[in-house]
């Protein structure tokens, strides 16, 4: 008996692109499309995130790689950034009161570099003006006057003391120990012996005079430090006055130029006071002493070296062109290496004489500084892989400012004194790009994530294959050709690429939005057109590109098919077997997927109604595969276990499988083999099966249907095609069929078959050639049906189990009496 389910027509196996939708000869006739296609939901999310100016509305764009997340986001950001005003320049200057806390200055765009240049010129001018002022005649005269004043004061005090001493016969003498007093007579200092020869009265008079003069001398000596202090103070006042007159007009000119910026004028005032206090640094001797060592160990030749570094301006953000003209629009920054220092900046150090030193000039900006006021684009995986980067980014977004801090400092590990730069206010949008799994993991496990990234842009991997979708695809191909300078595509080439887009989407009614694959296909087709020296790309070149890419990747598939042909891996495509069936799986190697037939066998015996999944027992079966096996058990109990428990034990295994198995796409295949093993009805080995099953026997859709069919077809074609070979697939997978042309041609020629089934009963009829059978009003299945055979065997198993449970039959009563009598005799 043949099955009522007929094979699919060849027209159902491949949906070609209607030429009526492509009303052009080549893409040269089309208007290039530069917009993103098939991502309406994601585009709306991007627009919303850009338009929302409240805190926390940062964007996380997620979707499969190659769907154009980055290009789409950047296109919208750059378009929006052009309409926004340019952002402030930022620089760090010295904090003269607390040098370890550099001061941040915000300036209009294009103004930071002019301020830096003005400060460099000021230092150069001060280096010439101050030495000239201190070497001038006026300064020399005023300095000489102050020194003469001090000298006169000293000499006057000692002259008076000398006069009083001479009147008392005392002389003021200098000794190695300093000034001293000694009695004299006739102009000569008396020796101790001569002094003792004087009369007592004269000795006492001399001693009294010595004591009085000694007291006066001590008073004078005590006054000298005060006079010198007053002299130094007057010298400082002189220096300050000279410096003020030399510096004043220079700084006043700068203050007039920067009078609109209060922060700059306030800084210039601090510079004025510091220059006045440290005027000596600008004098030649001080300059030479203050020049630091360069990395080569030589004195730095720059005039801004040494102590003059404190007057420099460290520009960390320059939103200008050439240091003067402001850039147009807000910044859009992509950070390719989002380490913690690259995000928030860092403080570098120099090694001098074996010691690490730093100052505010060694502060370097991070991506947050450069993107401040605009947009920062980050790859989520790269951020999460860098130590401290994710937490530092969140901290900056929560706090609303950028604090430059090393990881060691944030953890309290730093033992050396470093800089504490003033935090810079932060106002920007952060856009993170990543995979869906990263987004959902962060949503689940990071409580801060949803507060900081309130908008998600979900990029789809497919789009509708309708009239608009086909035209958008063609326009996108035209734009890509123009953008990369490739050969134009003719109508057939565009149609073939659209058909391949449906194949990549795995759906005849969809097109892939994995534009990276589509663009690569155009580039490779252009290569093959160039090999033939053609001016346009045709469908043949597109097919050559597809075939060449498969050939570069299918070494493992070819080796596997070879081992099947040689009999190393046993796959039977002829005859019929009980409890054995060909299942289909998909292997994925990088971006290349292919179907692999697998031999599934089932063995049954008396038991407790359990199905043993050998793959699971040896821990090779995944949870989805185990779920499928449990559904089989539920199906058997639901259909055949209504009158009593099932008394069988079944063991299911994928033969010659040496790796993990997961998924439920083989559950219908296993059920067919199980019913065959129970009923002892053989299954055709020329047919392979794929599809999952539910508890009621409905066959459900699976993935990779095209690869699975082609995988079994290749085995059959290598051995020789016959009219009874084919594949059974779920009916719900028909809309996914975009098979290779050789498979379509074989079906059209009647050499290969593809059946689409909705239920297990339909599939078992195709596999066995027997009717499945529906249960009648009497509760029995029709004679000759597969279901009747299954039910009969299960009843037999049940009867045997009950018989074993009852034990051996009891002997007759008269036999027991005879035994008792013989014992009595």
Q: Quick recap of the structure?
A:
By secondary structure, this protein is an alpha/beta fold. It contains 28 helices and 34 strands.
- Proportion of beta-strand residues: 15-25%
Question: How does the major sheet shape up?
Answer: 7 strands, mixed
Q: What structural category characterises the helix and strand content? A: alpha/beta
Q: Helix proportion of residues, in percent? A: 40-55%
Give the averaged pLDDT, no decimals.
86
CATH topology of the domain at 569-803: Ribosomal Protein S5, domain 2
Distance between the termini: 71 Å
Can you put this structure into words, describing what you see?
Mean pLDDT is about 85; it is low at about 285-305 and about 820-825. The strands form twelve sheets. The protein has a seven-stranded mixed beta sheet with strand order 27-28-26-25-30-33-34. Strands 10-15-18-1-19 form a five-stranded parallel beta sheet. Helices cover about 45% and strands about 15% of the residues. Among the domains are: about 20-35 and about 460-555, Helicase, Ruva Protein, domain 3 (Orthogonal Bundle), CATH 1.10.8.60; about 40-85 and about 330-460, Rossmann fold, CATH 3.40.50.300; about 570-805, Ribosomal Protein S5, domain 2, CATH 3.30.230.10. By secondary structure, it is of the alpha/beta class. The two termini are about 70 Å apart. The longest helix is centred in the N-terminal third of the chain and has 58 residues, at about 200-255.
């Amino acid at each position: 008996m043949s099955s009522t389910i007929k094979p699919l027509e060849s027209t159902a196996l491949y949906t070609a692109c209607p030429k009526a939708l492509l009303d052009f000869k080549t893409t040269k006739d089309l208007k290039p499309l530069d917009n993103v296609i098939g991502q309406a939901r994601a585009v709306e999310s991007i627009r919303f995130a850009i338009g929302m100016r409240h805190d926390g509305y940062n964007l996380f764009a997620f979707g499969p790689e190659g769907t154009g997340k980055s290009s789409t986001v950047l296109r919208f950001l750059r378009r929006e950034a052009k309409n926004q005003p340019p952002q402030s320049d930022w620089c760090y200057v010295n904090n003269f009161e607390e040098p370890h806390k550099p001061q941040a200055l915000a300036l209009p765009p294009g103004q930071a570099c002019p301020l830096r240049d003005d400060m460099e010129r000021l230092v150069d001018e001060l280096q010439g003006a101050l030495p000239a002022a201190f070497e001038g005649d006026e300064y020399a005269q005023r300095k000489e006057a102050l020194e003469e004043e001090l000298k006169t004061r000293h000499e006057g005090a000692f002259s008076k003391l000398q006069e009083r001493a001479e009147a008392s016969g005392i002389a003021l003498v200098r000794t190695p120990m300093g000034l001293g007093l000694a009695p004299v007579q006739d102009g000569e200092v008396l020796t101790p012996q001569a002094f003792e020869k004087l009369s007592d009265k004269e000795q006492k008079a001399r001693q009294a005079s010595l004591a009085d003069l000694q007291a006066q001398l001590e008073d004078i000596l005590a006054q000298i430090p005060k006079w010198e202090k007053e002299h130094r103070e007057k010298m400082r006042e002189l220096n300050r006055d000279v410096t003020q007159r030399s510096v004043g007009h220079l700084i006043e000119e700068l203050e007039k130029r920067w009078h609109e910026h209060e922060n700059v004028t306030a800084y210039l005032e601090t510079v004025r006071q510091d220059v006045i206090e440290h005027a000596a640094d600008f004098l030649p001797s001080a300059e030479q002493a203050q020049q630091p060592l360069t990395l080569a160990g030589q004195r730095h030749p720059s005039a801004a070296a040494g102590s003059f570094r404190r007057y420099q301006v460290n520009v960390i953000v320059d939103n200008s062109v050439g240091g003067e003209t402001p850039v147009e629009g807000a910044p859009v920054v992509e950070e390719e290496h989002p380490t913690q220092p690259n995000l928030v900046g860092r403080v570098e150090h120099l090694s001098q004489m074996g010691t690490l030193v730093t100052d505010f000039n060694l502060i370097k900006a991070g991506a947050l500084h450069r993107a401040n006021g605009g947009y920062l684009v980050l790859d989520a995986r790269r951020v999460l892989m860098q130590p401290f980067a994710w937490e530092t980014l969140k901290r900056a977004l929560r706090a609303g400012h950028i604090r430059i801090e090393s990881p060691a400092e944030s953890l309290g590990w730093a033992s050396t004194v470093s800089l504490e730069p003033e935090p810079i206010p932060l106002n920007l949008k952060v856009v993170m790009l990543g995979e869906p799994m990263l987004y959902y993991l962060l949503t689940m496990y990071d409580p801060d994530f949803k507060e900081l990234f309130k908008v998600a842009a979900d990029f789809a991997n497919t789009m509708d294959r309708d009239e608009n979708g086909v035209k958008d695809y063609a326009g996108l191909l035209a734009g890509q050709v123009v953008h990369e300078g490739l050969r134009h595509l003719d109508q057939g080439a565009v149609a073939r690429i659209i058909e391949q887009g449906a194949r990549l989407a795995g759906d005849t009614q969809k097109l892939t939005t994995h534009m990276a694959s589509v663009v690569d296909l155009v580039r490779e087709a252009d290569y093959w057109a160039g090999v033939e020296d053609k001016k346009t790309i045709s469908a043949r070149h597109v097919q050559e590109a597809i075939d060449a890419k498969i050939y570069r990747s299918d070494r493992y598939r070819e080796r596997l098919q070879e081992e099947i042909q040689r009999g190393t891996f046993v796959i039977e495509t002829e005859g019929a077997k009980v409890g054995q069936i060909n299942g289909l799986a998909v292997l994925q190697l990088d971006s290349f997927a292919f179907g692999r037939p697998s031999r599934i066998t089932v063995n049954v015996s008396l038991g407790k109604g359990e199905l043993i999944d050998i793959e699971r027992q040896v821990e090779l079966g995944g949870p989805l595969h185990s779920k499928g096996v449990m559904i089989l058990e539920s199906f058997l109990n639901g259909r055949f276990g209504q009158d009593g428990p099932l008394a069988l034990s079944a063991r299911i295994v994928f033969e010659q499988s040496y790796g993990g198995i997961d998924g439920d796409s083989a559950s219908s295949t296993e059920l067919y083999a199980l019913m065959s093993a129970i009923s002892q009805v053989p299954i055709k080995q020329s047919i392979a099966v794929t599809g999952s099953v539910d508890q009621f026997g409905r066959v459900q859709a699976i993935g990779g249907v095209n690869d699975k069919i082609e995988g079994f077809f290749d085995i059959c074609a290598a051995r020789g095609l016959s009219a009874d070979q084919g594949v059974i697939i779920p009916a719900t997978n028909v809309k996914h069929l975009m098979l290779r042309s050789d498979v379509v041609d074989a079906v059209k020629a009647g050499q290969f078959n593809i059946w689409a089934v909705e239920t297990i009963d339909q599939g078992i009829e195709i596999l066995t050639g027997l009717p499945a059978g529906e249960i009648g009003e009497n509760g029995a299945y029709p004679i000759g049906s597969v279901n009747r055979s299954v039910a009969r065997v299960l009843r037999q198993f049940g009867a045997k189990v009950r018989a074993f449970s009852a034990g051996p039959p009891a002997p007759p009563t008269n036999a027991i009496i005879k035994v008792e009598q013989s014992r009595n005799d």
